[in-house]
Amino acid sequence: MTIAVTGSTGQLGRLVIEKLKARVPAGEIIALARDPAKAADLVRVADYAKPETLATALAGVDTLLLISSDAVGQRVAQHAAVIDAAKAAGVKRIAYTSILRGDASPLVLADEHKATEALIKASGLTYALLRNGWYTENYTGSLAGAVAAGAMIGASGEGKISAAPREDYAEAAAVVISTPDTESRVYELAGDTAFTRAELAAEVSRQTGKTIPYNDLPEAEYARILESFGLPAPFAAVLAQSDIGAAQGGLFDDSRTLSGLIGRPTTPLATAVAAALAG
Prior knowledge:
Layout lengths: L2 E3 L7 H9 L7 E5 L9 E3 L8 H4 L5 E4 L8 H15 L3 E7 L10 H14 L2 E7 L4 H4 L2 H7 L2 E3 L11 H13 L6 E5 L7 H12 L5 E3 L2 H10 L4 H15 L9 H6 L6 H10 L1
Parallel strand pairs: 1-2, 1-4, 2-3, 4-5, 5-6, 6-8, 7-9
Helix pairs in contact: 1-7, 3-4, 8-12, 9-10
């Protein structure tokens, strides 16, 4: 079985390749990337935005993991090109990194994922929809700045967030795509233990020995602050709206499907925070 992974040099993709190498022979893995210079081996050139690269890249592939594009606003067209190329190349099964409860999520970010899921279902290919919850790194990546500022901010209120590190999601993806399956399936993937932003701030306070409060803000104010940090206005607005979606329960899941796939509990928040503060 030949397995290909798009976006293989990205933050999630490189972890999936690493996990796959522990499960299947390297000769069965094809890493697809826009810039092959960024990857050491197993690479074929595949650019979502250049459909002419996709046919050759997908030749001989049995199972494809389509990691969602980071080009918000252009994802559907780019994903459609990959799905069409996969079908034309004779790919038998496609897995896609979607968003938690992609068909019913209150997050605006879910719209392109929902459209992509529809394209995959219409393709006739066997599929695995990996509906990933939030990455813990979405929060731990900015901890240094929050500690320096003496506070954490957001707009998620008391919303519970079932996050897990990228490595946990990558391991689940590797398990799914390396296990032969002729049935189409949907996986709602999230961390075992949910937390609010206030609880995250409390954990950071505990580990740093400093009082780091969480300040909950109105959506528009949070978006303006994110924009003042240098984020483009449209992206700042999407992030702020994602917090509102979290407040509405859009990032909560207690099915433990993720830990079931990887055969262990998902990485605890305290462990992720400690790693971020140490790094």
